[in-house]
Design brief:
71 residues; mainly alpha; globular
Length: 71
């Protein structure tokens, strides 16, 4: 969507994905860049919300159409 590679980093307990990783299930968490995470002035750029929404929607569409087509 952006024409660049996503930044890869490890979150420390900021999502439920840690429970899947503890069960040896690979996970990916994708969302807007969190600024001042956990602070009173935490925020995300509004411009990133549309991009994140499109990535989530297109990923779901891709996964669902693969299931339907049997690919």
């Amino acid at each position: 969507m952006l024409g660049t590679a996503p930044a890869v980093n490890m979150r420390v307990g900021g999502s439920d994905s840690r429970w899947f990783r503890m069960a040896d299930i690979p996970t990916v968490v994708y969302g807007p860049t969190p600024y001042n995470m956990g602070a009173p002035d935490e925020y995300a750029e509004i411009s990133e919300l549309g991009i994140v929404s499109r990535v989530h929607a297109l990923t779901a569409f891709d996964l669902l159409t693969r299931e339907v087509s049997g690919a």
